What does this fold into?
Amino acid sequence: MNRKLGGGMRHLATAGADVFHTSATARGHVPAPAQIRWPLVLIELVIAVNALGGAVWGLAGAENVPREWLEGTPFDSYLIPSLILLVGVGGGMTVAAVALLTRRCYAPELTIAAGLVLVGWIATQVMIIVPHGGFSWLQPTMFAAGLFVAALGWRLRRNEIRPEGARR
It folds into this structure.
């Protein structure tokens, strides 16, 4: 086939690929390095599963968790906080991970938002329950994880690294 097209057509085809690559890069649709994307997806999914577990535990009555921790809050039970954990943290992390997996161009923004929602959740939780004696090693761990997720999302966004083949 190269003989039929000749050298000029082959050069034209290559030039077209270069123009496409340049315009795709200018739009910010360059491949997200696997060394960032895959660990980020894994972290987001682990956090989502952790949030699901916490929400299920809370919805089941939060056995061995003192009700005094809810004093000074608008909540009489762990029902609403559990739903917030499930939808806000777990749902947010799941949506961000799926956006990365499906290579959506807005995945970095969703990742930043999911990380910041987790940071806000933990900060609020600490302000409410630590004065009542409630502290867990998971709180600083999840706070750090939320900052890490948001920072990786910011790096993807700042460097305009978009998942390869990103779609809106």
